[in-house]
Write a structure and sequence with these properties.
The complex is a heterodimer of chains A (about 375) and B (about 325).
Chain A: H1 3-26, E1 31-33, E2 36-39, H2 45-76, H3 82-109, H4 111-133, H5 139-169, H6 181-209, H7 216-246, H8 249-284, H9 290-305, H10 309-314, H11 318-353
Antiparallel strand pairs in A: 1-2
Helix pairs in contact in A: 2-3, 3-8, 4-5, 4-7, 5-6, 6-7, 9-11
Chain B: H1 7-27, H2 31-47, H3 58-68, E1 77-83, H4 89-105, E2 110-114, H5 120-137, E3 149-154, H6 159-167, H7 171-174, E4 199-206, H8 209-218, E5 228-232, H9 237-245, E6 251-254, H10 255-269, H11 277-313
Parallel strand pairs in B: 1-2, 1-4, 2-3, 4-5, 5-6
The chains are: A mainly alpha (about 375), B alpha/beta (about 325).
């Protein structure tokens, strides 16, 4: 595609995107326009926002590909730092594999709960059909309605029995066999709530079998009781499957990688700042000029004001002095800096919106031979 | 040729030379020595579990008073945005923990959410740890997930997600499930929570400035802005403080010092409670502060002495 056309296309979509979000933020929620009342400019905002997130997700692939390119090149050509690159690539793939498997297992874990949620919708549907179709009925129609409902209830009770058997036989994430004492309770709760739901299902079926049929309202109450029992079962099943999911080998490895390695390493990396700040303070806070002296004295007052030793051993007024310094010296200065940076940011945003900023990838930025030029 | 030397002058020169060497050593202490002192001052209080009464923080007192004034209601929750990860865990975790403890003690329901993916395990574990501690302290009381708190998990999209939450007329449509896959409608405490007007208070804990600003800018509608309290790291205190002065945030944890003072206030209200991490971390940090101040003063003594030396030699 011609570079000039690419640039025009990018500039066009950048402008449209920026214009949309600007107008969506500034315009009232609903406006009257050209005779159309209650026009909502942001009617599809949620869907557009989700689209923006989808585009952002593509960065995952981009990031992984770039890492493999840059560090893979270093490893293959045995350049300096190749050992670190090997560690990075191995860590990347290890986490990708483990977390990918964990994601799949998480989805499987949710299956029994989703099954129960589907049954809840099923019961609600049976109930609504019963109410709707009983408006105009003949004796034959009532029988047909009841037969259909009874078949449906039989199916859902059968599904509940099957779930209960999975718990008893130790199948998949409903396994209760190898749980410790505290977790056994979760399994017992699942069994009892499922049993209760089965009883409610049978009660609903009995209601349909009654001759003469019970009132619509009584049928509705029976349906609601079953739905409530199913929701309670659903919560119990969620808890049990979560407990079992935590015990899987992959989850334990995932915990090890994250809580055993990533968290301590991440905390350690940031904690190094404490040591560098100490040496930086030692080297920079010197009597070189009046401004440096003022800064040093105020820094020491602020530090002493927020530790126990300041009020205890130096002066009880130190926290108040510290607050005064932050409120009347720091705040105006920071506000001034923020105003300046905000205006600069606004100017930069307008330039990017109007595509006035040169892209490093554009031909105008690079020379004809593809090298970057100033 | 015999060179005559003056013994007195030699002694004077030796003394001056020794003084110069001392001054030079003080003025440029090897950074490794500073590292060792900082490491020892940070670790010893933690090892020996030393706790000192924290300095008073008015910003944390405002935070405490605001939470203490809340009452449990079925149609209101507190939204806690734990936008931090392992890197700022040392400061933000004690802040989040102490805030959660206060809410649980008062039976104020809250929902946890995060814009940072790395926060997910903390969102799951922190309330459970606090509940365990509270139940050990109060064996007759019970706190249950779904009734006292809910974990909404990591939500991508930053400002877009925040705007979506603020503008929606139905939370259940935006946040369909909690972090464990349970439908929001099935969670007892979320049944009546539909819009931003059901958020009694927004608590945001982060070490990143961009996230804090996003909540401040976008979590609001024309006729309702929830009260906003913030927990920041020490590095971002100067920036967060200006929002406290302008009352855009009504409570602030100034690093772990704020959390330590909050713990002190909690201990005054609930004398039977056991001290948490905030106080221990702040005590440890205090000794490190003193070490840094000491080295700054030592360095300046060296600088002044060096100037005196040069003046004399001139």
């Amino acid at each position: 595609m011609n570079q000039k056309f690419k640039n025009i296309l990018i500039a066009f979509f950048t402008f449209i995107g920026g214009l949309y979000f600007f107008l969506e933020f500034m315009l009232p929620k609903s406006i009257d326009i050209f005779g159309v009342t209650d026009f909502k400019f942001g009617h599809y905002h949620d869907d557009i926002s989700r689209g923006v997130q989808v585009i952002g997700i593509m960065a995952i692939g981009l990031g992984v590909i770039n890492i493999i390119r840059v560090h893979g090149d270093r490893v293959i050509k045995n350049k300096s730092g190749s050992t670190n690159s090997i560690a990075l690539i191995l860590g990347l793939f290890a986490m990708l594999v483990i977390e990918g498997i964990d994601l799949v297992q998480s989805e499987r874990r949710l299956q029994p709960r989703r099954q129960l949620d589907a049954i809840v919708l099923f019961v609600a549907k049976i109930d609504s059909e019963y109410k709707a179709e009983h408006e105009v009925v003949t004796a034959k129609t009532v029988t047909e309605i009841n037969d259909t409902a009874i078949r449906n209830i039989d199916a859902l009770v059968s599904a509940l029995n099957s779930l209960k058997e999975n718990v008893d036989t130790g199948s998949g994430y409903l396994n209760t066999k190898f749980q410790n004492e505290s977790d056994t309770k979760a399994g017992d709760v699942v069994v009892s709530t499922l049993s209760n739901a089965i009883v409610k299902g049978d009660a609903l079926k009995e209601a349909y079998l009654q001759d003469p049929p019970i009132s619509k309202e009584a049928m509705h109450v029976a349906s609601l009781e079953l739905i409530e029992a199913l929701k309670v079962s659903g919560n119990a099943v969620s808890e049990l499957t979560q407990i079992n999911h935590e015990k899987t080998f992959v989850k334990k490895i995932s915990h090890f990688f994250f809580e055993g390695l990533f968290v301590p390493l991440g905390a350690a990396m940031f904690s190094l700042l404490a040591f560098y700040i100490a040496t930086a303070a030692y080297r920079s806070f010197r009597f070189r000029s009046m401004e440096a002296v003022v800064m040093m004295v105020l820094a020491i007052i602020v530090m002493l004001g927020q530790i126990p030793h300041g009020p205890l051993y130096v002066s009880p007024y130190l926290p108040n002095i510290r607050d005064w310094l932050l409120k009347y010296l720091n705040t105006p200065a920071f506000r001034a800096i923020f105003f300046g940076s905000a205006i600069a940011g606004l100017a930069m945003a307008v330039r990017m919106w109007l595509s006035l900023e040169k892209s490093p990838l554009s031909n105008e930025y690079q020379g004809d031979d593809g090298d970057c030029e100033n | 040729m015999i060179v005559k030397t003056n013994p007195e002058s030699d002694i004077g020169n030796n003394a001056t030379s020794l003084f110069s060497r001392i001054v030079s050593a003080i003025e440029s202490i090897d950074r490794r020595i500073i590292f060792i002192f900082v490491a020892v001052s940070l670790s010893l209080p933690l090892v020996y579990d030393v706790s000192l009464a924290p300095a008073e923080m008015k910003t944390a007192t405002s935070f405490f008073n605001l939470v203490d004034a809340l009452t449990p209601r079925d149609d209101q929750i507190v939204l806690i945005a734990a936008d931090w990860g392992p890197s700022t865990k040392a400061e933000n975790q004690p802040q989040t923990t102490v805030a959660i403890e206060h809410l649980l003690r008062k039976r104020i329901r809250f929902a946890l959410v995060s814009n940072i993916a790395f926060a997910s395990p903390f969102l799951k574990n922190l309330p459970n740890e606090v509940v365990k501690r509270l139940q050990a302290e109060n064996p007759n009381e019970k706190w249950t997930y779904g009734k006292d708190w809910v974990n909404l998990g990591y939500r991508p999209g930053m400002s877009i997600m925040i705007q979506g939450l603020a503008k929606t007329s139905d939370f259940h449509a935006v946040i369909k499930t909690d972090a464990f896959g349970t439908s929001i409608g099935d969670i007892p405490m979320m049944k009546e929570i539909k819009t931003i007007k059901n958020i009694a208070l927004l608590m945001e804990f982060t070490g990143s400035t961009g996230v804090f600003n996003a909540w401040l800018q976008f979590f609001r509608i024309d006729d309702y802005i929830p009260p906003y309290v913030h927990g920041c790291t020490s590095v971002t205190i100067p920036e967060a403080y200006m929002y406290f002065v302008s009352k855009q945030i009504v409570g602030l944890f100034e690093g772990v010092a704020g959390a330590a003072w909050y713990e002190e206030l909690l201990s005054r209200k609930y004398p039977q409670r056991v001290h948490g991490d905030a106080l221990r971390f702040m005590t440890s940090l205090s000794f490190a502060h003193l070490v840094i101040i000491a080295f700054v003063l030592i360095g300046n003594i060296g600088t002044i002495a060096d100037r005196i030396c040069r003046c004399r030699m001139e």
